[in-house]
Fold:
Amino acid sequence: MSRVSLLKVIGLVGALATAQAQAVPIVDTYIGANDHGYGDIIGRADWFDIQRAEVTRDNGFLRVDIFTNFVGHVGVYPSLTKNNKGIGYGDLFLGGPWTPFVKPGDNSAANVDGHKFDNALNGTLWRYGLSFDDPWSQANNGSFTLYQLNGTNVENLILTEELFKSNAIARDGQAVHVDRASQTVASRGTGTWSIDTAQKRLSFVLDLSQAPALASWDYLSLHWGMTCNNDAIEGGVELPSVPEPASLALFGLGLAGALTPLRRRRRAG
Ligand SMILES: [Ca+2]
Ligand SMILES: [Ca+2]
Ligand SMILES: [Ca+2]
Structure:
């Protein structure tokens, strides 16, 4: 094999790694409880709609992009919230395989496809929370704390209704924040979030060395909503295992090693 074809092989390996690391999409078909009869969005679609998420795991990092009209609307409806800060960012919750609750005996699309009876008290167990250090930040970027969630959802989480006054209509029953005071949650590290106002995109980037389990899971489920969950997205993806840079380097070395005797033989001949 000539040097040129060796470069071709190495280039192909690189291309394969790049292809495997492409973003995996989740389209928002999730309704969840309690929708109070409104369906996907309670209230203003131009403030609350979530369209989709994209998950990328590559080079030891996990990136989750949420495409939502909520970008740029932190702080709306201050009078409806107990802390008078208005609607803020909910945390991003991650789990293994997605197992949303479906009410038996109801074949409606809202139940079967929209999971309109699913909330934080049933279905998927969330194992990690990417928890905003300031959920009401007006900045374009900031930090989150990564929490490992070791108890039940009820023990680990703050739910929608805990943040709102009794006259507010929100998607109550949904996961909003990690309960940082709970004995069942443990801080494991930090990461960064950012928004792109033009793209209406909220992005989370996490160094997976802080959560080795997340680096190896074949399936990943997620939940995100603003604090009222007037829209919420949930779903699961299958993430192809991506060769780590170290494995690729070893593979490259192996190829080079395998080729060396060929060159020597050729010279000797
Ligand atoms: Ca939704
Ligand atoms: Ca939506
Ligand atoms: Ca659930």
Summary: Residues 23-242 form one domain.
